Amino acid sequence: MADFKSPANANVKATTSVQAKKSSNLISLIAPIACIVLGYIIWRFVIGADSNFTAPDPKGGFWPKHNGPKGDFARMYEGGIIVPILIGCFLIVFTFVIERWLTVSKATGKGSNAEFIRKVQFYLADKKVDAAIAECDKQKGSVGNVMKAGLRKYKAMIDDGELTTEQKVLAIQKEVEEATSLELPMLEKNLVFLSTLASVSTLIGLLGTVVGMIRAFSNLGESGGGEAARELSKGIAEALYNTALGIGTSAFAIITYNIFTTKIDAITYGIDESGFTLTQSFASLYK
Fold it and tell me: What's the mean pLDDT in 9-36?
């Protein structure tokens, strides 16, 4: 956003029409726990269902020792207790991708931000401030919200006979900055889950692989001959399921995180441009 410096003795009223948005972030507390629990349920009762094994463990329990998986889907169960954690991580990423998509889509508003700003510029050039405000109501996005807050101050400054033009421009700029400071946190909230799981999921997957390899070589020491080689190859294959799940979750998180940050950058640019439009328009029309 363009910087406008005011004289040292400028005395601008510290009033603002921008109100802080009240929002609950309960999803950030509930979703991770719920997703991990759901990941265990999927691993234990869907992937680890008795019907998926030729020799299921009749005792069941927290971690049944099933043998003889009937397919690749069932073999994922034998990746160990790290698998439900990785499934939970994927569900967490998926949950926050949906949550961020809904939020960012709403913040983007209707139509093109560039076209919206051009319309506001046209109305301001004709000194039709009310029409510009009405256009903000149609846009229904973060850029429109910031522009609307600035236009209200813009309209108030037109009839203000106490302040100089520079002070009025500064007041408009401060109003835009205040509105921006309330909009941007809503856009960036919960992205930390995607950025964190983008790296952590891979590490958890590698942990599962290492644990699986340790178990595989332990079984190798207890066996001999061709049976040992078979158990080793089986253990390695099972361990690599953890790596596959970790890398897949990480890739999904990285891709979606970059998509959202790109969209947020576009919205931020539109907000900056809207603030510049208001201050430049006022400075040129109401000297």
Answer: 68
pLDDT digits (tens, 9 = 90+) for 90-116: 999 999 999 999 999 999 999 898 899
**Domain for residue 45, yes or no?**
no
C-alpha span between 133 and 116 (Å, rounded): 11
pLDDT at 23 over 80: no
pTM: 0.85
Contacts of 146 (CB under 8 A, 6+ apart): 176, 179, 180, 183, 271, 274, 275
Token output for 196: 């964190």
Within 10 angstroms of residue 251's Cβ, the number of other Cβ atoms is 13
- Domain extent for 252: 104-285
The CA-based angle 64-73-61, given to 5 degrees, is: 10
| Domain count for the chain | 1
E strand or H helix at 166, and its extent?
A: helix 165-188
Has residue 30 been placed in a domain? no
CA distance 11 to 139: 34
Q: How far apart are CA 190 and CA 204, in angstroms?
A: 21
